[in-house]
Amino acid sequence: MRFIVGTGAAGQGVYLVEGTQAWSLTALDSKVGPDLRAIIDGHVDVNALAERKTSVPAEPVAGLTPGLPIALPGKIICLGLNYVDHIKEGGYDIPDYPALFIRTNSSMIPAGAPMVRPTCSEQLDYEAELMVIIGKGGKHISEADALSHVFGYTLFNDGSVREYQRKTHQWTPGKNFDATGPVGPVIVTPDELPEGANGLKIESRVGQEILQSATTSDMLWSVARTIATVSEFTTLEPGDYLAMGTPPGVGHAKKPPRWLRPGETVEVEIEGIGICANPIIAEEDMSATEAAE
């Protein structure tokens, strides 16, 4: 199945997507709620609802305003170095253990929302990533069983303010500026993709300029291996986000560096999932607009 959480003619909720059409599952059953939480937790029978989709009007997918798949995930865990060529372009040694960091909820935005370049730095970079949404929690999950814990896959742009990422050995500041982490809009269940979302083309671009282009088969830590590794130290919970790292081609490694600029729209695309597109806006322009309103 394919879902979009967002707002359409039927209001805010979860929409079942087939091709260019969408149906509000929330309109079919109010227990579905405003995001994927109730479906992930098994509070509604999504298969039964899907069979009744024509009981509500179809809407064009293009008319939906995306929201976050899970409005307030318990954890957002990200891999920093998961593609060999990206590791090399950053000047790092190939690690024996994944570089892991956590993002805050305030750094996350839905597809389509403005991605904000902060006033304190022009070094806003892009990172196309596969995002995993955990469906079944657990700790000490085996790699062999790990994929059964996945609810679905979506897109992520791990927007990074490089100047602040390098102010400390910990990456927290550069990875957590407000409104720099777009996610969504389409969430695809595992049965629609290759096992572990392996072998999918992944790209980022601005207009016709291709910034990154690779395949998810290049990941050092597969989805299954990552879930097993992360669950060694923390209990994964339904609705957690797990970002799988970015391929080579990021802006800071280009000569000269290629930062995202206000007025541009950056796109992340993964084969079989879709496109996450977000305009870039300067924080000072956003503040001026809010003040005028």
UniProtKB/TrEMBL annotation:
Annotated InterPro entries: FAH, Fumarylacetoacetase-like_C, Fumarylacetoacetase_C_sf
Taxonomic superkingdom: Bacteria
Metal-binding keyword on record: yes
Has the keyword Lipoprotein been applied to this entry? no
Residue span(s) of domain Fumarylacetoacetase-like C-terminal: 75-280
Q: Where are the coiled-coil regions?
A: none
Which keywords, in A-to-Z order, does the entry hold?
Metal-binding
The protein here is known as: 2-keto-4-pentenoate hydratase/2-oxohepta-3-ene-1,7-dioic acid hydratase (Catechol pathway)
Database matches in SUPFAM superfamilies: FAH
Q: Which family does it belong to?
A: Belongs to the FAH family.
Q: Which Gene3D superfamilies match?
A: Fumarylacetoacetase-like, C-terminal domain
Instruction: Give the Pfam families listed for this entry.
Output: FAA_hydrolase
Q: Which organism is it from?
A: Roseibium denhamense
